[in-house]
User: Fold NAD kinase from Cribrihabitans marinus.
Amino acid sequence: MTKRIAFLASDAPVAQTARATLIGRYGDAEPAQSDVIVALGGDGFMLRTLHDTQHLDVPVYGMNRGTIGFLMNEYSETDLLDRLSETEEEVINPLSMRARDRAGRDHAALAINEVSLLRAGPQAAWLKITVDGRVRMAELVCDGALLATPAGSTAYNYSAHGPILPIGADVLALTAIAAFRPRRWRGALLPKSAHVRFDVLDPVKRPVMADADSISIKDIDWVEIRSEPAISHRILFDPGHGLEERLISEQFS
Assistant:
């Protein structure tokens, strides 16, 4: 049976050209009526597509027309139907972030890769970390900290010297960014069920912003983060090039 394919593309000219070419060859369906969504761009566009289509029970297959493409498959125009029939599916859950800013406004966002807290001024951030209601670190002086999913562990988390997590691991990576005190503290591995809270200890002198997959909130007072099992993202990969293999290969590159 022929698959109904919805083609979505980033604003990059190379992605838009690819979309027009593929639509001419395979046709185009609305995402809600499709069997599969093909996202053309880089990892940033793939994350945006996953967020925008999370209400649909439709898998997303990415083809790289961007810069990085860790979540993407190689681009090809001629054999798409055969490739789609042979794909491997990975199912991931995002993080749910709740935050309150200094003005008392509440914010909520979802993050597939990570939720990060970053200093927003010249002074280092002072953070208190609470896990499941228990204070685990009364004061972390740092440029920031983040909580990453296994799918996002090779992104900002890895650049901040956090661990790469197997995709099937029921753990989250809590990683410090340029920790000053405790100077050698690199972070912790937490169970996927953990509820993590960051409190900003001196938000006036040492302002902090929160970022959830590029959704940014300024002047944070506190942030609470947990995994959201009620939401599942279905991602398709070519055989032998799934997230599990990519996560392993990244550690030997």
In short: The mean pLDDT is 92. Residues 181 and 247 are 30 Å apart (CA to CA). The radius of gyration is 19 Å. The chain is about 15% helix and 40% strand.
